[in-house]
Fold phenylalanine--tRNA ligase.
Amino acid sequence: MAEEAILGYLAKNQEIADSGEFAAQHGLNHDDVVNVVKSLHGFRYVDAQDIKRETWVLTDEGKTYAASGSPEVQLFLAIPPEGIPLEELQKKLDPLLFKIGRAQAAKNKWVEMGKQLVSRKVQHVDDTVKDLLLQIEGGKVINQDDIKVLKGRKLIATQTWNGYSVRKGPEYAPQRKKFAADLTREMLQSGEWKNLEFKEYNFNAKGQPIEGGHLHPLNKVRHQLRMIFLQMGFEEMPTDRFVESSFWNFDALFQPQQHPARDSHDTFYMKVPAITKELPEDYVERVKRVHESGGYGSRGYEYDWNRDEAIKNLLRTHTTAISTRMLYLLAQKPFTPKRYFSIDRVFRNEAVDRTHLAEFHQIEGLICDKGLTLGDLIGVLHDFFSRLGMSKLRFKPAYNPYTEPSMEIFSYHEGFGKWVEVGNSGMFRPEMLLPMGLPEDVRVIAWGLSLERPTMILYGINNIRDLFGHKVDLGLIKTNPICRLGVD
Ligand code: PHE
């Protein structure tokens, strides 16, 4: 309707000077006129120029007086011709209305405030305030003196009005052309397509947002890390077992049975199946011996090793259990050097907080070869971490039951302006490697870190619960950027 009116009017007239007046004259809603003008302007049927005007609108108080009359008139009408005691008049009116009405009525000299009675001074009053408010509400223009009064009483306020002046545009036509959007089978069959005009492609239109699956930031970082390991010639270890026996998780790593990490406060033990069925018995025997009395130049821990403790099933606390299995397998064949890595989930019975969850992902790398030294470990760590964008490293002596020497790895974080711990590393002990049957001169250098830590740093997440678990922000999962690790 508005479109026909506008295009039709411009066919005969130069200009629509004011869209507001145009809407009023043609009985149209101004918002509809504005929308049509914008659309026609976009397709260059018309040229539109903005018009801004300050207009007056009623405040909430003004609206109530426009509906029920000004306070002074309400007060006047509440006074009977014979007059009324002040307290009674007061009771008849709302306190605020009474206060304003009394002041205004006195100013207009409509009422007499006697000692005994309040009485009318005039026979009849006109509610000019209400009339003026109604005129403003109806969009009429009123004189400046009246405006001043109403503004002073805060019954009206200014509002910016937006409209347009409209002229023909370069593509003007009295009617909008209809373009076909799709070429259909029927158009081809009937030959109608020859007479049709087709809508042009809009190459600037945004595509539909893709509502498919989304990769979690942990998946993206994991993928990049996997690429880095593969580029460095590492093979991925099969980590597809969350349930592990204490033997492979702890005992085979020369971790004593009374070590605090084996406590159920730190480790989740399985109820069903509670124990493992199969272990390589001759190797178990050698592990028992090294714990109890050592060998290979070691004194061992000098306690009674208990098989019942070793067969307990648990949720693996580190992927080093897998590394141990792999090294054991390697030891059963003629020796070949290996570089292994894994990135998978581990579980620890820990209190959950901003930086800890009871399950997380561990990244682990190891190199097994003859004659490796601590210098090799440091060199490999520099190579690995600089590929993650962490080239400034420092090492601190540490302790692990299964490595000697052991080093914590720190990296200088430019953003935080400080050294942050990024991993743990070491050389596996002879007490771990020799019972497996590996040759004596074989050394294994290894390191581990969490996947969550670098992911949180890369994606600027400071609460781990925003990243993983039931409280994650789905918006983050859907819109997180690609991982640029190892790209620049
Ligand atoms: N297993 C260690 C951890 O849980 C990581 C590690 C792996 C340390 C290999 C040294 C060597 O933190």
